[in-house]
Amino acid sequence: MGMVRVLVVGAGLAGLACALEATTLGHHVVVLERSSRIGGRGTTQNLDEFPMGYGPHLFLKKGPFHDLVRKLSRVKLAATPLRLHRTELIGQGIVRPSEDIKTALTNKRILRDANHEHPLVEGCQFLASWGGQANELRYTGLQKSQLMVSNEGWAGMVGRLAAALDEVGVFIECGPEVQRIEQGKVFLTDGRDIETDVIVLACGPSAAKKIAGTMDEQRSKDLFSPLKRISASFIEVGLDSKSLSGKHAVIDTQNKYIVLDYRAIQPRLGREGSHLSALAIGGLESDPGETRYATANERLDALKSFLDKRASGWQDHVIQQSEQSKITLHDAGTSRIPQLAMADVGVLFAGAWVEGEHILADGAVNSGRLAGRTIAAAKR
Ligand SMILES: Cc1cc2nc3c(=O)[nH]c(=O)nc-3n(C[C@H](O)[C@H](O)[C@H](O)COP(=O)(O)OP(=O)(O)OC[C@H]3O[C@@H](n4cnc5c(N)ncnc54)[C@H](O)[C@@H]3O)c2cc1C
Known about the structure:
The mean pLDDT is about 90. Helix 1 runs parallel beside helix 6, helix 1 packs parallel to helix 11 (about 360-375) and helix 4 packs across helix 5 (about 135-145). This protein folds into two domains: about 5-50 and about 155-225 and about 335-380, 3-Layer(bba) Sandwich (FAD/NAD(P)-binding domain); about 80-145 and about 230-330, Polyamine Oxidase, Chain A, domain 2, CATH 3.90.660. The protein is built from twelve helices and 20 strands. With about 375 residues, it is an alpha/beta fold. The strands form five sheets. It has a seven-stranded mixed sheet with strand order 8-7-16-17-18-15-19, with helices on both faces. A hairpin with a 4-residue loop joins strand 12 and strand 13 (about 195). Flavin-adenine dinucleotide binds next to helix 1, strand 2, strand 15, strand 19 and helix 11.
């Protein structure tokens, strides 16, 4: 197969993974990213020594994201697992209490049997899949201490992908926004146009739907209609106190709250104190399921009240804080979109909303790599 010109829209995990794969196969790749930085939702920014992220992030050990990062780097990636003997499910207590071997063993068996109606199983599935569609790989991963926190934050992991791309000479341009596609030409909002053979839309489903719609509106509408996004509110705080009393995580399955203490999971992350990352999932009118909040701000406030109860006094100890009332957590519910649905017009899709066995970041990376390997199928 000869060299194909590939234009990747979006420098999130899906776009970066696709660019790496396609370049390795000898294609000529350009990545365009609308925002000023790469990484999309899967990254962190360093505020002083706190790597502030977009809410809590755990990666699956040896999952597609971790695998790719490991493969690229000469320096070993240090990471620490979330542990069930330091995880509390509200109403159930610590999942595997170390001081109560009998309960720990009983709970272990309950989790292995995976009866979905058991509150312990429900809580762990909720934690493993971040309130999305249950995922076997992550659920068993959680039980085997394979859901990890990276010691360098997700920014470090994204940085390794970026460094690898830089090494092979892939050009990532931050700033331009892709607006429409017409006869193999991509038009940017700044007035420029770029000619290409294959376009990979790795820009999240709403932008992908819009851009694909400029080629064929009805087709794009039909294609994207089954997607059901799940949104979340998050708050991240660096505190100079230990607020979760050493616990790695506290989960409220019923109200769909998750709070992690990165510092408890990975003590080497920095000085004394804690780094709480909390998430309230779903519950808006636009989310699937029951509506529990009138606005996203109301959800964020409810999450703060939850923290008031679980990490009392946290507000008096804040060193750094970042929050957002609404961000897309899951790009798709139970149904997803085939990667090759528009391959006949030279367009491939990549993201966690594309069909595949993985979810979240692993879904994004895996579909990105597959897109990179499938370039030839889309060449018009
Ligand atoms: C709060 C939160 C917690 C999460 N926790 C976890 C977790 O614990 N584990 C896990 O595995 N995953 C987690 N995820 C999910 C994970 O972050 C995402 O699945 C993954 O980052 C999605 O990658 P992506 O490349 O598909 O999309 P994105 O990261 O959204 O990247 C899309 C990129 O495209 C760009 N773009 C959009 N439109 C255009 C345009 N028109 N032109 C050019 N560029 C454009 C955007 O700026 C963006 O950079 C979490 C997500 C959130 C929000």
